[in-house]
Amino acid sequence: MGRVTRKESHAQTRERLVETAHRLFLSDGYNATSLDKVAAEAGFSKGAVYSNFATKHELGLAVLDVLHLERAMSLAAAVRDAETAEERIEAFARWAEDNIGDVGWTALEVEFATSNRHVKGIDQALAGRRRELTAAVADLIEQQATDLGLTLPLPAEDAAVQLLSLGIGLGVQRAFDPELPVTSLVDLLRSLLDRSRPAE
Amino acid sequence: MGRVTRKESHAQTRERLVETAHRLFLSDGYNATSLDKVAAEAGFSKGAVYSNFATKHELGLAVLDVLHLERAMSLAAAVRDAETAEERIEAFARWAEDNIGDVGWTALEVEFATSNRHVKGIDQALAGRRRELTAAVADLIEQQATDLGLTLPLPAEDAAVQLLSLGIGLGVQRAFDPELPVTSLVDLLRSLLDRSRPAE
DNA sequence: GTCTATAAATCGATAGAC
DNA sequence: GTCTATCGATTTATAGAC
């Protein structure tokens, strides 16, 4: 009864495959990484991949989920301890420098999305993830505004779309031109803050 | 002497190949389009492709140049006849709706950039094009500000980076979720305008 | 459930005829 | 300069052994 060895080892295999794919996709790209290499580096063979994922796309989507969770958690953690508005902006600036500035992440998401945009079913999976992510960012923004006692100049959802889109655009361009600074993300946030009014 | 038939037919072949690649890359994607198909649909065989382009990447870059020229011209044309600030914003809004809303363009650029980001030399080619495009948009912004007698709240170059990045981010997300509206581009432009001051 | 072996298909790039 | 034919390398996905 104590040993659920069957299910557990299956889950462990799956997790190690996702971890390995996560690393390889980030460093070499999604298209350039073969399932053979993923399996080998994870210490398995390709059969293990196909017993855990029906297609390469499914593995890709699983990696995207890890990516989203990582970023959401790191962003929330980054602004958690900040108090004043200026402290929060500075915390966000540091997070942006470390995360948007870290080129691989956005490039992978975008490579996967655009390369498979005509694959049936993938677009819906990506659309669902996009909406979740946008809602999560919107929640975070709203929470920050409440904390600071501010009313935003536009709906939190719209602000989230702006910040996410700008981050994607910057990340994509930095993938081939890392000299492009990420400061405009902070500029956008600051302009949102400047145009906010005290909540009544 | 009047007939430069050799050079001309070569240039014509090249042009038709780029046109066909332009169309197929947009509809099916860069990775999913084989050079064989490009050649066949253009009425040539693959040999003609390789006598005009050393690699598939070169053809891809040629298509990106066409894309950039198209967008730059259509944007400049869209705002040309507008007079008041509000008219210009509305002209830009229509352009954004027709262009950023038209999913294929951004997705192609971004698919090419991210899929080949580790191919030696491609990143420099893309970085050069990015800077040209940013400079062109910055020029357009500066010209508009001068026309309206306004001083922008930030350097035109920074505003160009913001608008381009936001456009890329929106275009990418709309590639798999076309319900995402492009209104935040107009919001950003309007906020730039609202924060501008009359030039002395 | 995982491994080995292989199928099946694709595609970029090259060689040589015309 | 373009075409035909083909190479050569890869990769996704499957079939069957263990």
Automatic annotation (TrEMBL), chains A, B:
The keyword DNA-binding applies. One of its GO terms (molecular function) is DNA-binding transcription factor activity. Gene3D superfamilies: Tetracycline Repressor, domain 2. Residues 34-53 bind DNA. The keyword Oxidoreductase does not apply. It comes from the Bacteria. Keywords: DNA-binding. Residues 11-71 form the HTH tetR-type domain. PANTHER family: HTH-TYPE TRANSCRIPTIONAL REGULATOR RUTR, HTH-TYPE TRANSCRIPTIONAL REPRESSOR BDCR. This is TetR/AcrR family transcriptional regulator. It comes from Nocardioides antri.
